[in-house]
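Box 3.1 A note on notation
Throughout this textbook, protein chains are presented in two layers. The first layer is the amino acid sequence; the second is a token string describing backbone geometry. Keep the layers aligned when reading.
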Amino acid sequence: MSEVCPVCSHPVSPGDAVCPTCGFKLLGATQAFKPLVMEAEEVAAVEAAPTQASLNVVRGPQVGMSYTLKAEPMTVGRSPQCSIFLNDMTVSRMHATIEPEGRCFVIRDANSFNGVWVNNENIEARTLRPGDYVQIGTFCLQYEEN
């Protein structure tokens, strides 16, 4: 009985060392992939838990400050009531929001005067990735996952 190449799905004979179509090395045998079966509760728990992450001030006022992102939405701005208080006139009172979506965090501009910049691109909303630089006014923050 012949099997199929795991790369191109072309039929291969059990004795083939490489796939005759794509050249993939079969190492003597091919293996069938079978997906894991997960219960709905397990999937929901994995999708709901956000990654542990932080925003670290790397340039501008307050260099060295670190803000841990939480499982609930957070506000960023010049207002002392904001979750992340950035005290500078270049920052709007309510500048942006950061909220978890699945296992990621998304930053959204809250109609700020100077905008939100991620990796030197002005954005309305963006999913943050490790190493991203977020500029809000004169503050440059780096997004890190812990």
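The mean pLDDT is 85. Helices lie at 40-48.
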